[in-house]
Structures are given as structure tokens and as C-alpha cells.
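Give me C-alpha cells for this 546-residue protein.
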Amino acid sequence: PRAGRRDRDGPRRLARAVSGRMALSSEDDTETSAFVASGGPLGAVRRALPCSIPVLVAAGAVAVLTSGAVGVLAGLHAGRRFAQPAATWSTLREVPSGVNLGGWLVLEDWFFSGPTGRHVMSTSPEGQGYCLPPLLQGSEEPWPSEGIFVKRLVSEQGENATVEIFEAHRHSFVGDTDLRRMAEVGISKVRVPIPWTTFADALAEIDATTYGAGARIVPDPFYSKEASFVTVDRDWLRAFVQRAGRYRLKVLFDIHAMPGGSSDGSYNGVWPLPPMFWIANTTLGDQTFPLTRAGMLIAKALIDWVSSFSNDELEAVEGVSLMNEPAHMAAIDVKVNNGFIESEQQVLDWLAEAADLFRASRLPGRGLKLYVQLIETAFADFTKTVKPWFSSTFSRRERGNWAVADLHWYAAWSGKTCSGRVVPGGRFFCDQSIDEMRSYLHGCVDWFGREVSDFSDGLRACTEFSLGTFEDAVLACNDDDMLHMFLEEQVRIFRKHGIQPYFWTWRMPYGPTFQRGWSLKHIAGLERLQPPFSCSKLGPGSSVEM
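Here you go.
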């Protein structure tokens, strides 16, 4: 259903003042100051009811204590449930057990496209990205992928300014308010896409000077002249795990991009340059070093790093995914330009070797899971090739304990089969009745659920799904009732088939065109009406005051 996958009226504000601990974040202070000044929720009750305040306070105290106890019990069992009822102040009626933090540590251009964004998969090599707030609120020229973007910033503003721009983004995009709200609506797992540069020092044996410990900006080991990346501070990322654990959230680390590009899409870090991971050596240092081996060093570094966590920290980790969407689009690209992999077996062999690293670590014994991400677009006959490989690579016990079969599902690229649009070409129009649309979508999602159930008799997950009904967000369905229905159908059907669902993604305030179909925070009515900073295309010679 994802053959064309990107490589991927303001929100309703509901009163969220059941108790003082559910106060809104500082982002919402201005918005609620008048409400608080007028007496807040107690003032509203005083004006509406004849009861005395002491009676109300006493009743409220009982309610808060009771709900608090229930909340603690629910939190203790959060990790054992596929979906939980949403908090009453959220607009959601069904909630997936997991959500992604896309656009945080791995950049995609459409997340930062401002009001001009349109396609989840950019249709031109120029890309759609125009900003990276708070420090970069606009640019004249769009950027297509993270590596190209960083290389351009370094040439224009220097290394120090580039690092500062990225660090400001990373420290502002996700805060404790986000973690608290996730937990409050019933989310128990957070998938964190990370770039290979989180473990850039693992490539020191290729070039110790370039990839030594402490490097802040490093080049891609193949596209060394075209793409660079800002490394990720692992101590800071480890502190994030501890913060997530305080909200009883479990973190799933996902290596979303590999050196040279291991898939064909704007999230691979080097797009629109051809992905070279599977067929080339490094062009720095030891030039006989295969990129696939470099990727294995990255995977091992992630496993070793997580293995070094304390027992308390490991309690806040769900597991790892060692490559996102391996060789995505390879089966399609081979028909156009000879492809970018040596063979389908090469991809499966790499995944099996990476799984051996996990198997030999302490992580399975600590209850952590290996999410084995697989995608249909990499194989000419996915079921015939990949299903027997998965069953033979992982024993029945492993499939039941830690080897998770992970497949992605999106309606946005399903064409006439399942997509919804405001123009002809899809399965349905966006203004058809809710019942009609439900019947179409139910059949599509249930088909996917059956396929995943048939693929593996053990643990199953869908670590990416959304409410986008078409990849062109301007032409996709945007009706609130329809989108909430679509979310409910997917979560319920995933639950029926024993599939752990992770919504793509939590927030994208700087891609407003996409929010309704792709931001769970927005759909839940929890995102602020206007983003805190601007994001726009700048005219020649113009600038943004910061």
C-alpha cells in the first residue's frame, strides 16, 4: 500500500483543568490567562451551579483522589495494552498505544514546508523545506533532505551557527508537556527515529579524524562533498529516556537513515541523490570499506549503547529497530534505473546479521524487543520471499518473545483501492457519508491486518500509520468526523489482529497543510492554534528577525 511512500479549522480547545496538575503548558498561558483570571474552572462552576463552594471542593477532592488512583493503576498496565481510552479532555475516542517523534532528530522536508507544503513525498528534487525554527524561520531556497540542508547551512553560515540552529530545534520541538500529554491520552510507547550520526564515532575505523569522538558535524561517508549531518548528543538522548520513564512511557529507538542512503525517499538523509548504501564503499579514509559494513557498525553501536543502560533506564526502553524500511523502493527502482541493491537476499542477509547482534546482547534477556522493519516495495514478491525468511530466521519462541514483525500501512499511496480525495482518482470522495467511507476503509485496514497476522504467528507491529487519505495533502480528506472515524477503525482493527500501532507522527506545527492527517497532537486538539514561530519562503534579500 506504500509504493509511492515519501521515502511519508484549527484544533478544538477543550477545558483541561480537572485538577491543578493538568494545567496547560507555558505555550498556552496567553490563551488561557483570561479564563484563569475569571476564576478558572471553579469560577465557571460557581456561576453555573447554586451549590456552595465547600461542597464543590469536597466533591472535587474525592473525584481527583479516585481518578488519580485509577490513573496510577492504568499507567502500571499501559505497556500491556494495545490501545487505551482517551482522556475525557481529548477529542480522541480511540488512541494507538504508540506514536512517533518524526521531525525531531531525523528531518524531512515536508515537516518544515510552512503554508506551501503539499506532498508527503516531494515531487521535485528541490524539496519543500524552508525552515527549522526557532533560529531558522525561513529561507529563499527550499531544502530536500537533512544532509543537503546541513551542507548548505555550513557553507552559508558556518559550522557553529549550523550546530546552534539544530540544537535549538532539538531542545524546543519536544518537551515534558508533550510526554505528559502522551501519557494522559493513553499512549504508552514512543518511537524515536534517530539518524546514523547518533553513533558517528562508530565509523572511526574508517576515518578516525573525521568520525572521532566529539565531532559535531560529520560528512556522509559516501556523499562526503554533498551531504553533512549534525551529530546527536547521546548523553542528552539518554536523559530523554529517563524523562520518558517518569511518565511510564517506553522508548523504541529506530535507526531511520543509514550512511549513503539505504532507501529511496527524502527521509534517507541524502535525497534526491541515489541511495548507495547497498552497492558502494566509503569515499573517505579506507575506501575499500563497504557502506553495508558501516551500517552494521552503527547497528552494533546502538545495541551496545542501550545495553549500557542501568536496569531502571532499561525499564523505559521498549526496544530497537536497526533499519527503517530497508531498501524501500528497490523493487520499483530496478524497473527504472537498474535499482540500488545487489539482490533481495543481500537485504535479508544484512537484517539477519543485525539480528544476531541483538540476539547475542543482554537486551532480549531484559525484555527488550527487536522490531524487524520490512517493507513490500523492496521485494518483487514480498510474501513469497520474506515470510519464509522471517520464520526461518527467528524461532517460534523468539517470534513470541522479542522478534517483532513490523510492517507499515498507509492509505495515502493506495490509489483506487483505498485512498480518499476531493478529486477523482481514489476509492471515495471526501464528502461521501461517514458510513460509506467507513465501509471502504474498514475493508482496506482489515485486509492489512489479516496480511500481518498471516505473516507472523508472534509479536506484530505497525510502527507507522496515519490518517492521510492521499499523499497530496491539499487534495486529501480533512473532515474532522471522517478523520476521527478513520483513526478509530485503524486502532480497533489493529487491536483485533494483535498489532501494536504507532501513529506517524506526534506533531508537525511547521507543516500546517499536513497536520490534520499526520499530527496526532493536532487531531487530539492538543496542539496550539498557531505555531510559536513562523516558517515561510523568503523573497530575495529578505530576512526573519530572530
